[in-house]
């Protein structure tokens, strides 16, 4: 099943928890101070319209 899901993800694999944690960590640092009032989606290259698939 993971191979089927991974084949349909633009980066070709499922994210690891550390990658999502790294995103949250970046947002907590001063380097991200220019990012305000935004949603940051960690989507592995997929968009909402891509989610109309047989395995979701």
UniProtKB/TrEMBL annotation:
Name the InterPro entries for this protein.
NAD(P)-bd_dom_sf, SDR_fam
Pfam families the record matches: adh_short_C2 (PF13561)
Q: Which domain of life is it from?
A: Bacteria
Q: What is the protein name stated in its UniProt record?
A: SDR family oxidoreductase
Say which species the protein is native to: Nesterenkonia salmonea
